[in-house]
Amino acid sequence: MLEIALDSGLWRLPEGASYAAISGRAHVKASVKQNTGGKPPTLVIESGCDSLARLCAYYEAENERLSVKNAHLQNSAQTAVEERSKERGLWWVDWCVFIAGGIVCTVITILTMKIYERFYVRPGGR
Predict the structure, then answer these.
(1) Which distant-in-sequence residues (6+ apart) come within 8 Å of 37 by Cβ?
(2) Greater confidence, 55 or 67?
(3) Which residues make Cβ contacts (< 8 Å) with residue 83, sequence separation at least 6?
């Protein structure tokens, strides 16, 4: 916590001059900016903290990493949706192959039974 008294004379600082204070890792800089056109001067205060700057840098890097990962996941999901939609268009081909396979299996079974009856079944009994 930094405290600057209101009567510290900051308002009387010449333009370009500043007041700075440091407490631990925190720092503050106060300066007066003279305005033109008869307006009163403006008090400009800048502050910072080393540990806060380090945390900001960490979170910026983490945000960038997660943004890239999110973009990759969105691309993967979009690709999966496109592939699935292409596969759905050919469902009737699968259905036709299934029916044709059933017909072929039935015909082979019937022919096998007829051949078996003709050659292996004794006349006059089963």
Answers:
(1) none
(2) 67
(3) none
> Phi-psi region for residue 65, left (φ > 0), alpha (ψ -120 to 50) or beta?
alpha
Write out the residue range of the structural domain in which residue 104 sits.
91-121
Q: Are 61 and 53 in contact (CB under 8 A)?
A: no
What's the domain count of the chain? 2
66 inside domain: no
Residue 71 lies in a domain: no
Burial state string for 41-69 with b = 16 or more CB within 10 A and e = fewer than 16: eeeeeeeeeeeeeeeeeeeeeeeeeeeee
Kindly report which listed range (2-6, 25-29, 121-125) carries the lowest average pLDDT score.
2-6
- pTM of the entire predicted model: 0.35
State the residue for tokens 């003279």.
34
